[in-house]
Amino acid sequence: MPATGRGVRFTVSRRGETVPAFVVRFDGRVHGYLNRCSHRSLELDWIEGEYFDAFGEHLLCATHGARYAPASGTCVDGPCGGAGLVKLPVFEDGGDVYLEAEDDIHLVNSDGIP
């Protein structure tokens, strides 16, 4: 997992649907989200792994410019209309990032997440 900047993509099953997801590091902590903008359900990154705006302050939907707080997924600007990203329960242990098991969310393809 990069110290800053780029995120790591992976895939989860949520309520029986296969959904793209990602994890980023912000202020020294890892944060995971479904890779779906709350505005149009499009993936946030045009370039794989690029989730932050040019200043590294917000997660950015590359399609319509919706901006989200990296630590909470809360909509802070743009067409998201106050709806935030769906946060995933991730944690870091020994430099590896893990998705916590939940009844309705399961890892499908790790692409770098153990």
Task: Identify the notable features of this structure and list them briefly.
globular, Rieske Iron-sulfur Protein, five-stranded antiparallel beta sheet, mainly beta, three-stranded antiparallel beta sheet, 114 residues
Query: Quick one: how many beta strands?
Result: 10
CATH superfamily: Rieske [2Fe-2S] iron-sulphur domain
CATH architecture annotation name: 3-layer Sandwich
Biggest pleated-sheet summary = 5 strands, antiparallel
The proportion of strand residues reads 35-45%
Q: Which class of secondary structure composition applies to the elements? A: mainly beta
Adjacency order of strands in the biggest sheet: 7-3-2-1-10
Q: N-to-C terminal Cα separation, in Å?
A: 11 Å
Shape: globular
Number of helices: 0
Helix content: under 10%
Q: Name the helix and strand elements from N-terminus to C-terminus, one letter apiece.
A: EEEEEEEEEE
CATH third-level topology: Rieske Iron-sulfur Protein
Low-confidence stretches: none
The number of domains:
1
As a whole number of angstroms, the C-alpha radius of gyration is 13 Å
